[in-house]
Amino acid sequence: MKTVYGLRTLLMAVLICGALPAPAAPPAAADFRTVDPENLVLIDTRYGQVAVELFPDFAPNHAARVRALIRAHFYDGLSFYRVIDGFVAQGGIGEEDAPAKDHPDEAKALDRWPPLKAEFDRKVARGETFTPLGNADPMAPFVGFENGFPVARDARKAHEWLIHCPGTFAFARDNGPDTATTEFYIVIGQSPRRLDRDLTAFGRVISGMQYLQKLERGDAEVDSGVIMDVAKRDPIVRMQLAADLPEDQRPVFQVIRTESKAFADAVKARRYPTSPFYFRKPPPVLDICGVPVAVKRVSGP
Amino acid sequence: MKTVYGLRTLLMAVLICGALPAPAAPPAAADFRTVDPENLVLIDTRYGQVAVELFPDFAPNHAARVRALIRAHFYDGLSFYRVIDGFVAQGGIGEEDAPAKDHPDEAKALDRWPPLKAEFDRKVARGETFTPLGNADPMAPFVGFENGFPVARDARKAHEWLIHCPGTFAFARDNGPDTATTEFYIVIGQSPRRLDRDLTAFGRVISGMQYLQKLERGDAEVDSGVIMDVAKRDPIVRMQLAADLPEDQRPVFQVIRTESKAFADAVKARRYPTSPFYFRKPPPVLDICGVPVAVKRVSGP
Asked: Which of residues 187-206 of B touch A (CB under 8 A)?
């Protein structure tokens, strides 16, 4: 029983401490917004379906590009060809991919999908629902939440960008800033914050991280983590936009409104945990990448 | 080719940015120490072998306990019964385990393995090789590395403790401080720093994190993440101490000496990346849980 209690109490710590959805007693329905199916990317892996919410306002051209790629079935049958444990899973056309074998469109890819202008950040506009985290951040002058996404702002609050946390969805690029074309990556490890504002990040995983964690890994020290044996790569079975599915076949997700009192209360409870589990109350400092943003799946197959 | 270059250059970012082993050009052999086989715990999962290095000086009684449990074959055939994506994988005797079915020793467990006195921290002793990270930390007055482990110290530098980073190995407990008995957990997600100095942490994964990431997950919002269907739990196939294996069957790992100039140089290169991949040089601030500590497997089956 001790162990059982141990679990229960460690759970309290989990709900307060872990990067997890909000505690079992949920906020009111009005505290959640429904994810726009035009922004809901569904990535089918052999382990399960991953759901990514796009935030197009941060990178309208990249969002339009990834929607176009998905609708052209560009990614279907390609792979997660570069997966580095604790860092990123990168998907698309990888080195060693044989176009004819792996993807009929590969030869045309460069023509069809020219390099995009970088969208590393955006101007702060009026009327945004930026909700400050409430403590200093080691890497940015201001951090907080916008529409459920972790966001950083510069010292003048003139520009803002999405933060690289576990689950962040972004486009890879070459050395030049304006060189992203089709490859995406998703963060699967400790937040690589130094990539912030230096790559175009415009989405986050809202469901299915555990399936990305099952992906076959490459060796970071060999071939830059690219899995050179094409047969060993886990496929991108299919990528779809929820908007392109019949309504009755769409998964529907709701995300807590990070501007709501319910979210503020959850953050406060996390900052000042009252669980008897804690002997030394932790410093009232939160990691922007460790604050849970509650997601509910409300319907779908 | 663009994508290929993209990989290569993103790789440079990876080697500098990712929570990864040191770059391909390795430090000299003298910059590495060999892991003591008495401190090398080998956890066989159905996906592959995980290697954990213990740091007994931080928790001598817990280290003695886990060695005794391993040598009693206590964990063999038990399971990772509570696995929460982005937080921890917890192993041992879980709720719903039927002693007779799952483990003959369970009934005797509480008698054989009485609760341990907490070893949340230790007094700072002379002659330790604490190497400061070199920048402020959001959660502790001082942080740095000792023997390859991330360590925090209090404001008076009187006490120190292991930091909860991805891969940290610790014992679970109940609400009381002195209640740990047999259950362990390993951090598999964004560093849950608020657990620092409130649980007894005394090891870290030096190889095989990707196998822990494949473990069957529980639902954090249901049964505190415990996988109630025992049949769905991934087993702890076997846990062994390398010291108990014939020498020719032991894996041998070497860890970079975090007090060496080679490590200091790697940290500096990480803090001030020179890769042309970066347009905005990131702030010269490192996350103690994001700094790679190089590990080499030098022999073994």
From this structure: 188-198
